[in-house]
Design brief:
Blueprint lengths: L1 E9 L7 E6 L21 E2 L2 H9 L6 E5 L7 H13 L3 E6 L3 H6 L3 H8 L3 E4 L19 E4 L14 E5 L5 E5 L17 E2 L4 E2 L5 E2 L10 E6 L1
Parallel strand pairs: 2-4, 4-5, 5-6
Antiparallel strand pairs: 1-2, 1-3, 6-7, 8-9, 9-13, 10-13, 11-12
Helix pairs in contact: 1-2, 2-4
Length: 225
């Protein structure tokens, strides 16, 4: 699969403590998308499904995996393989998608149907910047929560969260939903500050990655001083 970014643990991208995978590439072009860097289909980094599954399963304390992007259903085949592995290990799967629930339900593509069958919860619908909403998981009022299983039907979804993490190297990672309904401005940086790479783990635990912020539902930005 083509991966844009990965976060091993987060409490700002769905219920409980979760791993979060942002995939690269999106055929939609929602105005106001938080992550234009994740839209080109030729960006990011190609990673085998088994390696990504190893990343997720290496965090035994997480409740599940959130898939974002980019557009997860644009890579339905490898993500179906991944979601099936994650579910087999007892973890839940949440998918943020720009497709409507109605369109996905009538899609006859076998891989799309496999990915749907391996998910517990969808946050479905294109982002509409003219219809902001304050909700734990929805970014605009047209979007829907679709409970595909009972796993998250009674889960605590709120409050809306933004996470700030400061690493030993002084780099700050920001992920989650903006506290205001509209996308936040970039963090103020000092004179030499600039956006830095979002690091992706390798199977050996190293890292390399792309730049930018994620799509509307979950800003992901790494900055340095």
């Amino acid at each position: 699969m083509r991966v844009a970014a990965y976060l091993p643990r987060s409490r700002a991208n769905g219920p409980g403590l979760r791993s979060v995978l942002w995939v690269q590439g999106c055929p939609q072009r929602c105005p106001g998308c938080f992550n234009p860097a994740f839209l080109p289909c030729d960006g990011g980094r190609v990673v085998p499904v088994v390696a990504v599954a190893d990343w997720v399963l290496a965090a035994p304390d997480t409740e599940g995996l959130s898939l974002s992007g980019g557009e997860p259903f644009a890579q339905a085949a490898p993500l179906a393989d991944l979601a099936e592995r994650v579910r087999a290990a007892g973890k839940g799967v949440l998918i943020f998608t720009g497709h409507t629930a109605a369109a996905l339900r009538t899609d006859t593509d076998a891989d799309t149907r496999r990915l749907l069958a391996a998910a517990d919860l969808l946050v479905a619908g294109p982002y509409r910047q003219e219809s902001p909403i304050r909700h734990p998981l929805l970014a605009s009022a047209n979007q829907e929560l679709i409970f595909l299983t009972g796993r998250y039907r009674h889960a605590e979804l709120g409050p809306r969260r933004t996470e700030f993490r400061i690493g030993a190297d002084g780099a700050m990672t920001v992920t989650g939903f903006p506290l205001s309904p509209s996308p936040p401005d970039p963090l103020p940086l000092g004179g030499r500050g600039r956006p830095a790479a979002i690091f992706l783990p390798s199977p050996r635990g190293g890292g390399a990655g792309g730049e930018g912020r994620s799509r509307q539902q979950s800003a992901f930005m790494r900055t340095t001083r």
